[in-house]
Amino acid sequence: MTEIRLTANQYGKAENRVVRVTRDTDRHDLVDLNVTSQLRGDFDAAFLEGDNAHVVATDTQKNTIFAFAREPISSPEQFLVKLADHFTGEFAWVSGGRWAAEEFGWSRIGDHDHSFYRSSPETRTAVLVRDGGTDALISGFSGLTVMKTTQSGFVGYPRDRYTTLPETEDRILATDVSTRWRYRADAVDGLDFDATYDSIKATIMTTFTQGYSKALQQTLHAMAAAVIEAHDVVDEIKFSCPNKHHFLSDLSPFELDNPGVVFYAADRPYGLIEATFQREGAPTADAAWVGIAGFC
Amino acid sequence: MTEIRLTANQYGKAENRVVRVTRDTDRHDLVDLNVTSQLRGDFDAAFLEGDNAHVVATDTQKNTIFAFAREPISSPEQFLVKLADHFTGEFAWVSGGRWAAEEFGWSRIGDHDHSFYRSSPETRTAVLVRDGGTDALISGFSGLTVMKTTQSGFVGYPRDRYTTLPETEDRILATDVSTRWRYRADAVDGLDFDATYDSIKATIMTTFTQGYSKALQQTLHAMAAAVIEAHDVVDEIKFSCPNKHHFLSDLSPFELDNPGVVFYAADRPYGLIEATFQREGAPTADAAWVGIAGFC
Amino acid sequence: MTEIRLTANQYGKAENRVVRVTRDTDRHDLVDLNVTSQLRGDFDAAFLEGDNAHVVATDTQKNTIFAFAREPISSPEQFLVKLADHFTGEFAWVSGGRWAAEEFGWSRIGDHDHSFYRSSPETRTAVLVRDGGTDALISGFSGLTVMKTTQSGFVGYPRDRYTTLPETEDRILATDVSTRWRYRADAVDGLDFDATYDSIKATIMTTFTQGYSKALQQTLHAMAAAVIEAHDVVDEIKFSCPNKHHFLSDLSPFELDNPGVVFYAADRPYGLIEATFQREGAPTADAAWVGIAGFC
Amino acid sequence: MTEIRLTANQYGKAENRVVRVTRDTDRHDLVDLNVTSQLRGDFDAAFLEGDNAHVVATDTQKNTIFAFAREPISSPEQFLVKLADHFTGEFAWVSGGRWAAEEFGWSRIGDHDHSFYRSSPETRTAVLVRDGGTDALISGFSGLTVMKTTQSGFVGYPRDRYTTLPETEDRILATDVSTRWRYRADAVDGLDFDATYDSIKATIMTTFTQGYSKALQQTLHAMAAAVIEAHDVVDEIKFSCPNKHHFLSDLSPFELDNPGVVFYAADRPYGLIEATFQREGAPTADAAWVGIAGFC
């Protein structure tokens, strides 16, 4: 009989939608999370024999998430660390795992004490991968759509028999920014994750506005450099950014000019640029990135 | 042979993604629309005999939309009226149609001249239905998620053998507001649609925050009354609002209390409340609402 | 103060995901439904005063759905009628409502007794609208994608200054069939809904294959005529069908011909044809169609 | 100034929707693909200086895909190899890349010569990663939903203070099978990919039906073992499978029993089991898996 070997595996409860309300005073606050817990360790018997003696039920993982939300949640990252410590501390055979959260941003309606609207276009993300005693903590966001209506071009690329694209020195540059950054391991403890998140997001948005973009690649590099320069707690940052094409509409059949005014926003296909930038000299953590969709 | 009769019908080009950039000065502006054009009129021959002599090609409708976007677009509503006038004016057999637009909201990054991010959580909508010489213009929005963390309850409902829900005088009230309002026919000409939109949206959000909600129904009525009271150009308003349940997590098995702190945000099933409110004495326009999903 | 009037309204519990297993013998069977219940009647006090004395809780509606699923479900339509009879019979102020179901189709893996896979590309739908003592029962499906790789063309359409589309006598015709048909009121009782569904679906698919299509409109008429001809229980049928464009790829820059071989399948914009066909002499039921998305 | 280093990166054109019709005879055939091409190599100058001399335009990659579709496509895998050979052969600085395809399955309506419907519930996938001269070819599928209505249980798991789940020896087991398998490097050339795909899919479905499942983990291991045993061209297989919970509806408040008949199909949270199985002694290829979502 063929021999097969169980290698990488993890399991748990995905997408626990936890809303926590702080109501110590009449001025409430809320945290809105989508939490996934997955355990790694010695689970071979479950796969090979259906012996569940080590299988902390995914239902138990769910219960733990909701029970832990009874205490204040200072950030998604802090909450994930707490879950990781619990599961790896409580069960001898749980050597690690992957804990992930999405956070949805709310703002007060007016300045009301207990009424809110979901305001953030982007989804904030956090992933903690613990494996063999080391942690990798990766934060980020997705779904932030940005556009420059000028100061972007694309020229000087190679031409072969399949090249028909004309060069342009004035086009729309638009993308949905998806980015993830990995924190320096010794910076995690006590870090103000919310402030850092806000600062990195602002750095990315501001850098996007600056200067002339010769290629989306160049813009991604500029954003990465600005983030790493300004945030010494970040060791690595990845971007996965579609080039959301806005094609100039050809109005000449209708005897109309179109000096950069009317565009057709296309769906598919789209350009897709993925890149990783690392702080010089920082350690790598490739295994921690496995399973994060759409990044290379 | 059975006789069948062609009754209501319309056709056209759906979801034309038009982005228009105003670049008269260095400070650009942009309009981002998803436009659908559908014609009504004498199209029987196409259905019955495949005779296309009356079928203004959907491709032609698309071209017209992009060509018309060469001129300034003051609002989605104004753009739809222009399309309607063109198609019903140009082709004798086109007696009406349905033109619809979604608008996606962008804001400047910082106060940058030509860099923007997609900021609006909600999608603005506009529908113009022209039929038999009369117009109905319906504006609205969808996807605005709001939440009150207190000042909401649900008591006093009938109990039968299938009732298990306990009464509560303190719960989370959360919904995705989808609303559409119909303008008074003689108010459309020259109306500042953008200002009216902003005002109606603000009225709805502010009303949501006010007072104690005995039922989502009561809240919808309050929002409708406030909109109609403050906007004499609105004859009718509809809401279609899910009751997005946030269930108090039962932490008692873990010897924890839960005084309104930890909630599980459920997906399905959800409550769903749909209601129409009309200004007393205003004319109805039921046919115009057909085909707008999820409203009654 | 402005007077506003509550007009059309309904409320209930949406998207109850019920799976029912028949296990009287070792050969199991299953029904997989997504059921929505909404009540109409005298609910003014809830809206106007927050008085819930008439508000059968949406949670109670959910419980009723699951309790009723304890008995065999012979078809989605039969299940909706049972719910309608219950709610309008039990509560004096409930004069009607709207009950809807989606059904997802499963097949046995091999011919296994209790193992299944979700096999149907289409979603079957059923809607029962009861209002003022009359019922309208509307069945249908959505999401059935069909394609003809030849025997379709589009010529003879009018040309204006915005027309650039070349005529073609050989193109791909592809659409996602969404259709809904209304049963003759006196045919509902005792009808074999599953057999009728299968027969109507087969009629539509077979008719799609037949002959040369001069326009999608002509094809829809042919499908409608075939359904109404062959099914005397159907009084009315609607179609809402995108023209899913497959554009011939221009390979001439690469010195390649393209005799109908390589196509680009576009997303947006798309043609959209909506049409209603009624059996000659059958009664109309326009109000029942309100709120069904995307049909005219 | 902080030094940052560009590490992993790739770019290209994503989601090119190619439909190819074989029409040599009156009996047509079609291939429906969604193709992504991304290049790796020496692209540093684009990122660092906006120098595009090496940047084969994503538009050129798109053109190449459509041009290559002019020739017969025997399988998605074969098409990806052809693209990889072209780009790495044509441009000296392109050392590798990632080419991916989704395939959508169509069947004939009846046995018609040129009319088809989209029949496959699952999406077939293929990914070719070429890096540093070595290829990894990974095929698979997603979206195949399967269910066993009995012969599944979950007992013997550890209980801690957060455990409330009761043991059960008869439950519904349902999942959406997502799987990817990696071909042995020397088996790729000349392999009948379509036949292998059909055989692996059948093996997975058949194994799912067999025996009593003590845990979804055990079932995944059984499926993996069967695939690897029966297909010596497969070196590795991964599964990512949600445990789609079907909770027994509690009907006791209504004085009804529920002997495994009525279930509530929940959305979120859900169990999630991910596992990798390797043929004993086969080489690993971890880097090739990066960026495939939802697998560990």
TrEMBL record, chains A, B, C, D:
Residues of the active site: K13, T58, H245
Listed InterPro entries: Uricase (IPR002042)
Pfam families the UniProt entry points to: Uricase (PF01014)
Amino-acid positions noted as binding O2 in the UniProt annotation, renumbered to this chain: N243
Residues reported in the UniProt entry to bind urate: T58, D59, F154, R171, Q217, N243
Keyword Protein biosynthesis: no
Residue positions binding 5-hydroxyisourate: F154, R171, Q217, N243
GO molecular function: urate oxidase activity
Pathway: Purine metabolism; urate degradation; (S)-allantoin from urate: step 1/3
Catalyzed reactions per annotation: urate + O2 + H2O = 5-hydroxyisourate + H2O2
Keywords associated with the record: Oxidoreductase, Purine metabolism
GO BP annotations, alphabetical order: purine nucleobase metabolic process; urate catabolic process
Documented EC number(s): 1.7.3.3
Top enzyme category: oxidoreductase
Function: Catalyzes the oxidation of uric acid to 5-hydroxyisourate, which is further processed to form (S)-allantoin.
Family: Belongs to the uricase family.
Annotated protein name in UniProt: Uricase
Species of provenance: Microlunatus flavus
Lineage of producing organism: Bacteria, Bacillati, Actinomycetota, Actinomycetes, Propionibacteriales
